[in-house]
Write a structure and sequence with these properties.
Helix content: 25-40%
Number of domains: 1
Oligomer: single chain
Order of helices and strands: EHEHHEEHEHEEEEHHEHE
Structural class: alpha/beta
Low-confidence stretches: none
Radius of gyration: 17 Å
CATH superfamily: Acetylglutamate kinase-like
Strand content: 15-25%
Strand order of the largest sheet: 4-3-5-2-1-6-10-11-9
CATH class: Alpha Beta
Largest sheet: 9 strands, mixed
CATH architecture: 3-Layer(aba) Sandwich
Number of helices: 8
Mean pLDDT: 95
C-alpha cells in the first residue's frame, strides 16, 4: 500500500443510505467493509464521522436552538454514529476503539493522541467521536485535527462525488475535475473542499488530502493503492 496510516472523514449523512434520516445498517456495513479491506491490507485507520444524519448544530441554530447547545448536541450525534460503526466493524471481526472528545463513561475513552497512536500500532481501528469537543467547529476541522495529531500519511474525505470539480458537477454539467490541486490554488478558486478552519489546519501542517467517492465498493483500497480515482490536495 502507498500509505501506512490514514484518517478517513465520513459525513453523518453518508450513514443514512436511502432512509433520509438516522442510521441505515446497510450504509454502515458498506463503510465497515471498506475499512476492513484497508486493515486487512495492513493500513492503520482512524475515522471521524459527522453527525448531520441526526442533528447539526448550525442548522439547529436557525430553528431557535442556542448555537453552543446545538453544537454539543451535534457532538453527541457523532458519538452515536461512532458507536454504530464500531458495532458493525466488531461484527466483522475488526478490532475497534472509540475515543471521544468528551468524558462519556462506558461509551468511549477520552481522546489522547499518544493512546490513539498506540492503538493504531496495535492494529485497532480508532474512531474519534465528539468532534473537537468545542462548539463552533465542524467535524471537518475535527478530522483535520485528528489527522495531524496521529501524524497520518493522508486525510481522506469520502463524499458522493468522485473528487473536486471547478463547480458542483451535480448542478453544472460543464464542471471539470481536478486530478491534483494545491491548497493555494483551491483557496484562490474558492473551492469548497472543507471549511476554512480545517483547510488552513491541513495547509499549515502539510497534511495531504484526498477527496474521493466513498460510496462505490472497493474505492478506498484503490486510493490506498495509489490509483488516481479522486483529487489529491497538497502544498506542492
Amino acid at each position: 500500500m502507498k500509505y501506512n496510516r490514514i484518517l478517513l472523514k465520513l459525513s453523518g449523512e453518508s450513514l443514512m443510505g436511502d432512509d433520509g434520516y438516522g442510521i441505515n445498517y446497510g450504509a454502515v456495513s458498506h463503510f465497515a467493509s471498506e475499512i476492513e479491506s484497508a486493515v486487512t491490507a495492513g493500513v492503520q485507520v482512524g475515522v471521524v464521522i459527522g453527525g448531520g444524519n441526526i442533528f447539526r448544530g448550525v442548522n439547529g441554530a436557525t430553528k431557535g436552538f442556542d448555537r453552543r447547545q446545538g453544537d454539543h448536541m451535534g457532538m453527541l450525534a457523532t458519538i452515536i454514529n461512532a458507536m454504530a460503526l464500531q458495532g458493525v466493524l466488531e461484527e466483522k471481526g475488526v478490532k475497534v476503539k472509540v475515543l471521544t472528545a468528551m468524558d462519556i463513561e462506558g461509551m468511549g475513552e477520552k481522546i489522547y493522541f499518544k493512546n490513539a497512536v498506540r492503538y493504531l500500532d496495535e492494529g485497532y481501528v480508532v474512531i474519534f467521536g465528539g468532534g473537537t469537543g468545542n462548539p463552533f467547529f465542524t467535524t471537518d476541522t475535527g478530522a483535520a485535527l485528528r489527522a495531524v495529531e496521529i501524524k497520518a500519511d493522508l486525510l481522506l474525505k469520502g463524499t458522493r462525488v468522485d473528487g473536486i470539480y471547478t463547480a458542483d458537477p451535480e448542478k453544472d454539467p460543464t464542471a471539470t475535475k481536478f486530478a491534483n490541486i494545491t491548497y493555494a490554488e483551491a483557496y484562490e478558486k474558492h473551492l469548497k473542499i472543507m471549511d476554512l478552519t480545517a483547510f488552513t489546519l491541513c495547509q499549515d501542517n502539510n497534511m495531504k488530502l484526498y477527496v474521493y467517492d466513498a460510496n462505490t465498493p472497493g474505492n478506498l483500497l484503490k486510493v490506498l493503492s495509489g490509483e488516481p480515482i479522486g483529487t489529491f490536495v497538497s502544498n506542492q
